């Protein structure tokens, strides 16, 4: 049983040919196959498509109109499949949905994504900023950026950079409280805390224990809480408290002296920065193009140390 596209293609060739036999030769099928296709279309439309005689077949007025419309439809269909998947060669808008942490995206992704959008206007960039891990199925995510750990075999993931953490404070606060000698001393000092928007809990600080292992410190009575890392940085700049943030987020402030680090000997191992996509069939060229652009943007040393 032929599908509707095959039937239409056979009909259009037959309408341009002096006989079904010649149409069959052009299509590399049997003359009986052409006849059956025409009969099936005639039953479908309830119209005679060809006047038949022992000497020739001639398309009817209805058939001629159908052939003209059919040829246009087939040309559009062929053009669609000719450029399928390449957003730079088709006028069809193609959406790529990306999820990434807020501050990392603002500082390191947006310039690369903006360049990509200008170079490929047919690609619609849909950027969702969230520090929580996205549900790639429910949110229909094509590409994600994640910090830390990536052990889910449902994803194709590439580690592209390292991200270090620092504990820092405004110089005036350090002068007032004194430099903490150990992580335990942080409990008696004003601190800032980052709140997990999903659970409402304060994220722990990750520290090395000086013996090759790791430990955590959770601010029990923080002076400032927020679910936005940049707001936490601003509170630290104002001298509200000590905080732990990714190095890239406070690099300029450390370079200018507006913030200083403490407890450097207890800095934890750097985390990986991953770019990932779900494993769900073939990868469209538009997604591969955006994926590669994000990998290139984050593979610069800046996310880890700048």
TrEMBL record:
It holds the Pfam family LysR_substrate. This is LysR family transcriptional regulator. Keywords: DNA-binding, Transcription, Transcription regulation. The keyword Oxidoreductase does not apply. It comes from the Bacteria. InterPro entries: LysR-type_TF_proteobact-type, LysR_HTH_N, LysR_subst-bd, WH-like_DNA-bd_sf, WH_DNA-bd_sf. The lineage of its organism: Bacteria, Pseudomonadati, Pseudomonadota, Betaproteobacteria, Burkholderiales. Gene3D superfamilies: 3.40.190.290, Winged helix-like DNA-binding domain superfamily/Winged helix DNA-binding domain. Belongs to the LysR transcriptional regulatory family. It comes from Massilia jejuensis. PROSITE patterns: HTH_LYSR. Residues 1-60 form the HTH lysR-type domain.
């Amino acid at each position: 049983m032929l599908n509707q596209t095959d039937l239409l293609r056979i009909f259009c060739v037959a309408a341009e040919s002096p006989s079904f036999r010649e149409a069959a030769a052009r299509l590399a099928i049997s003359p009986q196959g052409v006849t059956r296709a025409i009969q099936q279309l005639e039953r479908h439309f309830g119209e005679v498509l060809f006047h038949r005689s022992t000497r020739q077949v001639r398309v009817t007025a209805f058939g001629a109109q159908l052939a003209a419309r059919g040829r246009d439809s087939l040309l559009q269909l062929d053009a669609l499949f000719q450029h399928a998947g390449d957003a730079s060669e088709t006028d069809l808008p193609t959406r790529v949905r990306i999820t990434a942490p807020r501050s990392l995206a603002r500082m390191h992704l947006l310039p690369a994504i903006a360049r990509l959008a200008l170079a490929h206007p047919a690609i619609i960039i849909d950027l969702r900023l969230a520090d929580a891990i996205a549900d790639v199925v429910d949110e229909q995510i094509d590409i994600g950026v994640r910090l830390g750990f990536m052990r889910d075999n449902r994803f194709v993931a590439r580690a592209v950079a390292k991200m270090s953490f620092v504990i820092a404070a405004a110089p005036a606060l350090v002068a007032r409280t004194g430099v903490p000698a150990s992580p335990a001393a942080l409990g008696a000092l004003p601190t800032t805390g980052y709140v997990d928007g999903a659970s409402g809990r304060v994220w722990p600080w990750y520290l090395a224990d000086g013996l090759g292992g790791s430990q955590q410190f959770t601010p029990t009575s923080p002076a400032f809480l927020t679910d936005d890392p940049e707001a936490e940085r601003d509170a630290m700049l104002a001298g509200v408290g000590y905080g732990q943030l990714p190095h890239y987020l406070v690099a300029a402030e450390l370079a200018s002296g507006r913030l200083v680090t403490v407890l450097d000997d207890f800095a934890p191992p750097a985390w990986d920065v991953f770019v990932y996509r779900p494993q769900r069939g073939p990868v469209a060229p538009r997604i591969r193009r955006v994926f590669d652009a994000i990998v290139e943007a984050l593979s610069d040393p800046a996310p880890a140390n700048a």
